[in-house]
Amino acid sequence: MPSAAVVGTGLIGTSIALALRGRGVTPYLLDRNPEAARTAAGLGAGVVGAPRTPVDLAVLAVPPQHVAATLHEYQLLGLADDFTDVASVKARPQEEAAELGCDLTRFVGGHPMAGREQSGPLAAQGDLFHGKPWVLTPHAGSLPRTLGRARELAELCGAVPVVMGHAEHDRAVALTSHTPHLVASLLATRLLHGDDTQLRLAGQGLRDATRIAGGDAELWTEIIAANAPAVAEVLAEFALDLHEVVDALRDLGAGPPERHRAGRAHLTTALARGVQGRARIPARAAGGLRLSGVAAGS
Amino acid sequence: MPSAAVVGTGLIGTSIALALRGRGVTPYLLDRNPEAARTAAGLGAGVVGAPRTPVDLAVLAVPPQHVAATLHEYQLLGLADDFTDVASVKARPQEEAAELGCDLTRFVGGHPMAGREQSGPLAAQGDLFHGKPWVLTPHAGSLPRTLGRARELAELCGAVPVVMGHAEHDRAVALTSHTPHLVASLLATRLLHGDDTQLRLAGQGLRDATRIAGGDAELWTEIIAANAPAVAEVLAEFALDLHEVVDALRDLGAGPPERHRAGRAHLTTALARGVQGRARIPARAAGGLRLSGVAAGS
Predict the structure, then answer these.
(1) Partner of A228 for a Cys bridge, out of A167, B41, B61, B249, CB 3.0 to 4.6 A?
(2) A178 DSSP 8-state letter
(3) Residue B296: pLDDT above 90?
(4) What does UniProt give as the signal peptide span (chains A, B) (predicted)?
């Protein structure tokens, strides 16, 4: 890929720019906040400002609610031949882009499955995407060239491209990312009702189970709001299981012997299903394996 | 502490024995399964078998449902002057011990807040308790000498003794350990309903949020069953918050504009409360600080 631009030099945009620089591409860096773009450039992520002629690919690394307007603006300005984004939801931004009259033939949505608790260009890491899945959501009208460039971007960043439909993507992240985030938030909320002595007993388990709840509330509102129906569906199923467990615990605590036995059996089944579900998370491939796979594909 | 015995040479018992050996105490090791005691001794954790005269302190490192019967048995046999345990729940075993007619003046319950996903003596680590809280739950009738020896045990293991009532302990771990475990299990259970493509998108957040769900289902049934009323209470409050979030997401997905706005505001508030709750988990003290504090106290 001879030329690229990154619009939005926060954590993800700057990390992409740093990864491109490491592969010999010097991206143009744009941000509504010029200071953020200068900071990214100062880190060696590229050069500040717009190119004189359109680049091959522009990466829109802006929050999900700004993707459509940003695409519309930079297609009108002729920033790039092709466009992709990195937003955590894919259906809604594309619908909004269609409503604004964007040229969707030259846009393929993307979502690198990587992040950090920190945000901003100073938290960026050129290896943030190494070995991580990078979802691409082409549609029936996408140009093969556009998809090819988005795929090449993912590969240059060391990620593993995964092509799926945008609705399929949004259901998947409702399950693997958005519901876990809300569950962790609700669990962490319980700690507001504990006293300091109780909280002294916090161990690594609680720290891990609530880590993602520390993420920025405004950003996560945008992400989850843009995928609300799919998240509500998974969370409602979670709530059904939860009620059965609460009932089982009440039987265990005070029920007659046969209810007590049934409650205990239900609790064991619920915990065993958790063990099974946990085991479904794929083991990570070894670093070398990922990188050679990427090198072969790029 | 001149002499000690450890009954139950699993992960926790063997880790305690290794820690004592590192401080110059050679514990007697007993286990219903002689092979486990021999394995622990082979790791350098102490000597297999019962002492000829009572030791100062015996540590009952057996599952919560066996604490009372084990205490009763070894008090009759005269294994030790004083006894403590390491079970994750404290009220129920003590009630059961009272029913069996144990001498509770010479028993002080204990709970070191440390563990690993693995179990058995081969997973033991002499530094497992370094800097971790170690709860002690004396009651009105406990001898000061018994409490002193239990406290000395915690300090010899490098832990930080925390004295509280047994009901207070059980409410605290319902909040900081048992509810998080069940929530992680129910979250992991959702993954049984995802397909392989969806699960490929699993990131570090999901891995962390569900890590504790991998724990042994039988052991956790015993732990949570012995604390069922306190866990049910926290989990029921979690369920109330959850329902409000599900309603907010449904309003966000399909509600009229004013419901949509209210749903969005509710979502932001829920996420912000999660950030606040997460921030209540105390930062860990630096290792050096912990160890010097322990050295001063022991």
Answers:
(1) B249
(2) I
(3) no
(4) none
Location of structure tokens 């289902």: B217
pLDDT tens for each residue of A89-106: 999 999 999 999 999 999
Give residue for tokens 């997905």: B253
User: Rg for chain B (alpha carbons), in Å?
Assistant: 22
CA distance A134 to A155: 9
Alpha carbon distance A105, A141 (integer Å): 5
In the numeric block, which tokens belong to residue A266?
Answer: 């239900």
What is the interface pTM, i.e. ipTM, of the complex? 0.85
Q: Do B208 and A206 touch (CB under 8 A)?
A: no
Helix/strand/coil for A164: coil
Q: How far apart are the first and last CA of chain B?
A: 10
By C-alpha distance, which of B178, B177, B144 is closest to B163? B144
- By the 8 A CB rule, do A129 and A158 touch? yes
Task: Tell me the count of A-B CB pairs closer than 8 A.
Answer: 339
pLDDT digits (tens, 9 = 90+) for B56-108: 999 999 999 999 999 999 999 999 999 999 999 999 999 999 999 999 999 99
The answer to whether A104 and A94 are in contact (CB under 8 A) is yes
Token reading at B297:
């106290």
Query: Sheet containing A160-163: which strands, arranged edge to edge?
Result: A47-48, A28-30, A4-7, A55-60, A80-85, A107-112, A133-137, A160-163
Confidence grade of residue A257 (pLDDT, cut at 50, 70, 90): confident
The DSSP call for residue B165 is -
> How far away is chain A from the Cα of B281, in angstroms, using its nearest Cα?
6
Spell out which residues of chain A touch residue B125, defining contact as CB-CB under 8 Å: none
* Contacts with A193 from chain B: Cβ below 8 Å: 175, 237
- Strand partners of residue A162: A135
In eight-state DSSP terms, residue B285 is P
A104: enclosing H helix or E strand? none
Mean pLDDT for chain A overall: 92
Q: Quick check: helix, strand or coil at residue B179?
A: helix
Q: What is the pLDDT of residue B289?
A: 34
Q: For the range A114-119, what are the long-range contacts, defined as Cβ-Cβ under 8 Å and sequence gap of 24 or more?
A: A114/A12, A114/A15, A114/A159, A114/B203, A115/A11, A115/A12, A115/B203, A115/B205, A116/A11, A117/A211, A117/A214, A117/A215, A118/A11, A119/A10, A119/A11, A119/A216, A119/A219
Residues of chain B above pLDDT 90, percent: 88
The pLDDT assigned to B1 comes to: 65
In chain B the domains, ranked by start, together with CATH numbers, are: 4-165 (3.40.50.720), 170-279 (1.10.3660.10)
The per-residue pLDDT for A118 is 80
Question: Angle of helix B228-254 relative to helix A228-254, nearest 10 degrees?
Answer: 160
**Over 90: is that where the pLDDT of A109 sits?**
yes
SS3 A148: helix
Pick among A190, A211, A241, A243 to test the B interface (most B CBs inside 10 A): A190
Alpha helices (runs of H) in B161-227, residue ranges in sequence order: 166-173, 179-190, 196-199, 204-210, 217-225
Give the H or E element holding residue B89.
none
